[in-house]
């Protein structure tokens, strides 16, 4: 059978275009496919602005700081309707007497279409008055949802509810794990993580801390481990390294690795000052974690795969699989990224780049950025840093600081962006923005 010219053209076009469509990767959880904020190549624009490369934007009801996630052509995000929207960090610290709402809050999920931003459905998971207050800069919908490709999982720590839905918003199962007070009344923030058929919650609080795993399909509890630490805000990392799978949890002064299937403790590192806000950076050989508070800087550690046992960190500690450490070098709220043999750590207006091999400082430079809560992300040979005002610096990876673009969108940004194919999704307090050429 012979094809005519037009049919041949269509066939060739499909062959050329289809691979591009197939490689558009889902963004199934906080910080992407591996929980690391890193993609192999850059497809979304590296330049955007209020009037540049915004494919669409939609107003968001209520208030929330959870990151959007993407499955196929659908975006999912959560919000709390009936509570005050978050404010900037500087505005929030002016009132250190957090108050809880005096009315019920609707804990809400919304699904949008990636292509045009149209709303496909929305659902209220529950309506309840939160028991505990939050800081003005936080929200009652800060925990990012997650998906295993079959189910959508949402978690509202303020009321202790986790639910599984199908992609049309129909409830599959729902569990209550309790709500708890948090350090300084700041509120909650640790997002969901999936792996090995489970969905994981790290619930570190000021009353009764624990890590829990639910069967993703049924909602049955698989395991639960009580913890001695107090409040932390770090999201657990399902780290599939060259030797095994681990669930890494950064708590208050310690880091623990669990077997994701059984909850058995693989290793623990204590002696790390203060509570974690940032989540670890990772590659297939090492993880990188640390913490810093408003008035102090904690350590930064690089741990290789295969660690076992209980260890107490000190600057001169000799621990197998502890590749290197740096004092007064840990990140603050914004999670770092590891890409191309470089580890990028933001903190207090300064970006420090370390060699992942030995921890040596590659460069340390002051940046013209404000307060940062959104985690860094990297795609190809580009690293992106976004402050809460919507200013984003785009860096070229390498042994020196090279800023290749500076972008601005006027909104308040605490949420970590999501990426799917050639689309970058930025959640502001007011709107959800899709950046695409």
How far apart, in Å, are the first and last alpha carbons? Answer: 40 Å
Count of individual beta strands: 34
Structural class: mainly beta
- β content, as a range? 35-45%
CATH evolutionary superfamily: YVTN repeat-like/Quinoprotein amine dehydrogenase
Name the strands of the widest sheet in spatial order.
1-28-29-30-31
Rg, Å, rounded: 21 Å
Assembly type of the shown chains?
single chain
What does this structure look like?
This protein is mainly beta and 437 residues long. It has a single domain, classed as 7 Propeller (Methylamine Dehydrogenase, Chain H). 5% of the residues lie in helices and 41% in strands. It has helices spanning 5-22, 89-92; strands spanning 38-39, 54-59, 69-71, 74-81, 105-113, 119-128, 146-147, 152-156, 161-165, 171-176, 193-195, 198-203, 209-215, 221-227, 237-240, 245-250, 255-258, 265-270, 281-282, 286-293, 296-304, 309-312, 322-326, 337-339, 342-347, 350-355, 361-366, 377-379, 382-386, 391-396, 403-408, 418-420, 423-427, 431-435. The strands form 8 sheets. Strands 1-28-29-30-31 form a 5-stranded mixed β-sheet, with no helix packed on it. A 5-stranded mixed β-sheet has the order 15-16-17-18-22, with no helix packed on it. Strands 2-34-33-32 form a 4-stranded antiparallel β-sheet, with no helix packed on it. Strand 25 (342-347) and strand 26 (350-355) form a beta hairpin. 47% of the residues are buried.
């Amino acid at each position: 059978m012979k094809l005519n010219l037009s049919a041949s053209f269509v066939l060739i076009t499909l062959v050329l275009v289809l691979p591009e469509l197939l490689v558009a990767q889902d963004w199934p959880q906080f910080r992407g496919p591996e929980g690391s904020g890193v993609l192999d190549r850059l497809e979304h624009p590296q330049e955007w602005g209020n009037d540049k490369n915004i494919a669409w934007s939609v107003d968001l009801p209520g208030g929330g700081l959870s990151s959007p996630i993407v499955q196929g052509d659908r975006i999912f995000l959560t919000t709390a309707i009936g509570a005050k929207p978050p404010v900037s960090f500087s505005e929030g610290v002016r009132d250190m007497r957090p108050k809880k709402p005096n009315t019920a809050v609707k804990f809400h999920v919304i699904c949008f279409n990636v292509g045009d931003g149209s709303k496909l459905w929305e659902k209220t998971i529950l309506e309840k008055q939160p028991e505990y207050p939050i800081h003005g800069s936080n929200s009652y919908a800060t925990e990012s949802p997650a998906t295993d490709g079959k189910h959508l999982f949402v978690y509202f720590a303020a009321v202790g509810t986790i639910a599984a839905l199908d992609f049309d918003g129909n409830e599959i199962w729902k569990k209550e794990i309790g709500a708890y007070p948090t350090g300084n009344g700041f509120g909650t923030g640790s997002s969901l993580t999936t792996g090995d058929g489970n969905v994981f919650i790290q619930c570190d609080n000021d009353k009764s801390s624990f890590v829990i795993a639910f069967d993703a399909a049924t909602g049955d509890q698989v395991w639960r481990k009580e913890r001695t630490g107090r409040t932390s805000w770090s999201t657990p990392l399902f780290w599939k390294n060259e030797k095994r799978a681990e669930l890494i949890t950064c708590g208050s002064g310690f880091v623990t690795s669990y077997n994701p299937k059984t909850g058995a403790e693989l290793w623990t590192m204590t002696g790390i000052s203060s509570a974690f806000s940032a989540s670890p950076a990772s590659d297939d050989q090492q993880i990188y974690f640390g913490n810093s508070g408003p008035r102090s800087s904690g350590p930064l550690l690089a741990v290789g795969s295969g660690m076992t046992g209980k260890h107490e960190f000190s600057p001169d500690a000799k621990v197998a699989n502890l590749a290197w450490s740096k004092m007064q070098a840990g990140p603050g709220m914004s999670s770092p990224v590891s890409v191309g043999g470089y580890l990028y750590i933001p903190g207090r207006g300064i970006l420090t780049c370390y060699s992942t091999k030995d921890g040596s400082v590659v460069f340390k430079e002051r940046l013209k950025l404000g307060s940062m809560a959104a985690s860094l992300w990297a795609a190809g040979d580009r690293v992106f840093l976004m402050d809460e005002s919507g200013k984003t610096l785009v860096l070229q990876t390498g042994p020196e600081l090279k800023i290749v673009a500076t972008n601005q969108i006027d909104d308040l940004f605490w949420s970590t962006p999501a990426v799917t194919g050639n689309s970058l999704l930025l959640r502001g307090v007011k709107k959800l923005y899709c950046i695409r050429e």
